Amino acid sequence: MYWVKKYNDAIVQGKQLIGDKVLRKFLRDFFHDVPLLEEVRFPNFTADMLFIFPEQTILMGIEVKSDRDSLLRLPYQLDGYLSDCNKVVVATTIMHAPEALKILEDERYEHVGLWVYRMEQGEKFFNEIKEPVCANLLSVNSKWISRKHQLYQWLYMLEVIWDKWERRQT
Hints:
The chain is an alpha/beta fold. The protein contains five helices and six strands. Helix content is 33%, strand content 26%. The relative contact order is 0.15.
């Protein structure tokens, strides 16, 4: 309860409390059994977190926006995620929720989900404000992944994911 009051007071006073590490740790713990890559550089953007769900052939990208972040680059970042990930989520705090939701109202981002970090009655969790939906990835392939790229170790799995997705769409 103490932290909830402290966080709410900080928002009112314009101070920033919840950082990137808190949000990432919660997501890592929540998806503890799912392969994860962080800070993955794609040709046109850097993904904060990529979760690989091989059974469902899904590559889920999560853009983390803490209280210390700005949402100015979010549309550009989402365009990158949508070109390379089956599912995309913005994971943010109460402070950024209204502005993030406004950005996601654009039809380009209709498939993007929004999760808002909450603290209530001593519990910490993400509220799913908008559910992510699998996007059409017909133009995606893994040919740009070089031997030096951090995704190279996952190349085969990603090719399987993207190939299955393409076959499902045709």
